[in-house]
Queue: 3 jobs
Job 1
Amino acid sequence: MNNKPKFSQEDHLEMVKNAWNAYQPSYMEFNLKARPDYYQFFANGGVSLDDYEIDLLGDVHGLKLLDTSCACDASQAFSWSNLGADVTACDISSVAIEIAIRNAQKMGLPVKFVVADAQTLTPIPNSEFDIVYATYVCWLEDIFKACRTWYRVLKPGGRLLLQKSHPISDHLEERNGSLVVISNYNDRTPEYSDSFYGTSMAWRFGGWSVDLPIVEFYHTIADMVNAMAEAGFRIERMLESGGQDSTKPLMSKLPSDIAILGRKI
């Protein structure tokens, strides 16, 4: 099932870029409230990655790693850097990159930053990285184009770790002790909201509101695996992590996140 999008891909890209630019200061404020020791934590070598992500990639010391969607807090980029990787982080939002650069300077961390659309990575040359770490793909309309791009910027033998919220959790909601299907798993129609308050980011992480239109895109597990395979990746491992939210006992019985590891061959 697929209904026709209301806007063009170019319009969608501008919607995402404009909303993210407006949203970044609030997002950084939320991160500082959630982790008051944010600057000290990362400056002292802190790591805020899931164990399964670290287990999938193993030792990253000395490897060149690209974080494709770092946002202003760049917590994952800083984490990989603290684990020894040579990290470059990008985001489509220039405001996010400006804030991330200031954060890195304040903490003395050697992460490099660049403004770029994760689907094209225009400023990034071919065969540049050992690892591409791709997250927040709900903001990427063309997962097939993105995987081809990530294949392009990887060295031969390089690895892609694609991580996102589990597609199952995106389509279910816990209400009054029951699980309710809120959308069709196979419906890839873009979902439009009038503000960030109605997006899955707000649903998962907080209740912020930026009164600008925004659009999200849904990709099934098959979409992600097929996009990686079409680009030329050999799928090596896939992990599904479980939820631990005591306020949502039924959702906690289902996987909350998924990670797929592929290698450029």
Job 2
Amino acid sequence: MIFFTRSKNLQDADDHILLNSYRETGDLSVLGQLFEKQMPLIYGVCFKYLKDEDLAKDAVMGIFEELVGKAKQHDIKQFRSWLYVVSRNYCLMQLRSAKKMETVNLDDFMEFTPVLHPDTDNREAAMKALELCMEKLPANQKQSIHLFYFNEQCYKEIANSTGFSLNDVKSYIQNGKRNLKICLERNSA
């Protein structure tokens, strides 16, 4: 039992030395050595959550890319435990992003438009009313709504392309939808 504990302590010490070396030099090969030792753990976590070999392999590479910056930013006491949490969180974000990537039908977006009917004239009138109301939105709401519904981007993609925080994007879309609904109801009355 003592041998196992010492071996584990030596393993942790080696990880700590490699981590400090990477932080001091920025040498990716050192980080690669540290990462390679943990790849079976990382792949196992990724496969457990993503349930697909290819997605798990892609996630392992994505985690390494994140690790390049995060390893310098965080105060890491137990690298293996910390990396497990980073890997798990990465996979959960991938799963959430996949749910957000579901396509959105424009008719679903315009569900609150009472003038929408199968006939072409009413559909054109509804689209024109929507365009007019979109122009009245604040710029951040208009941009977020456009990217989400018309470009079919997920929240994370919108945040990355606009520089808005993830919470701001969610808020802009929610408030924008509410403002569009109010505007469309006013114009149809």
Job 3
Amino acid sequence: MTRVLVVEDEPPIARALAINLRARHYEVDVAPDGRTALDLAATHHPDVVLLDLGLPDLDGTEVIAGLRGWSDVPIVVLSARATSDDKVEALDAGADDYVTKPFAMDELLARLRAALRRTAPVAESDLVLVTADFTIDLPSRRVVRDGHDVHLTPTEWRLLEVLVRNRGRLVFQKPLLQEVWGPAYGRETNYLRVYMQQLRRKLEPEPARPRYLITEPGMGYRFEA
């Protein structure tokens, strides 16, 4: 069974998370503060951590730093702090994802599954992504929709490939620009907007209401499947 460490000092939230996770056959440990969380992580070796930032003894970013000193366990932050600065600080500290309170349980569970997928060994079958609307074959550099190949420019393909390889995870604007266009780029966010619009027109069932190619305003992009 997959073991989840819930780090949350508000008993009603901790209890609700534990009940929902156990109902879905996860093993759950609950820590009400940062030091207990670090102790449980060292002894029980969780597969994923759900971490509140506002803890009574340590700030959540200190817990992230403590975990990252020895572990690559996926960390999904749960926090009422909603500013971009708070999100960037947590992600830069080593968190894998950030969910703002209040949150929908279905969304949180989807983020948790995505975090777990990213740490699973990559099998050859994982290099072919099948969605309800199209198929992406990474080794063949091919996208098929409605039985027909979708023509993508080299830049469109590279942008899509980076997002798909990081699916479920926020990719910040600057590293995305540098990955696709090169190290000299970092501020040309208009490039991303233009090419994301083009990809949505080619892949999304409703380009104005994207299902797969998601924008995190002011931060970056994420591919959800």
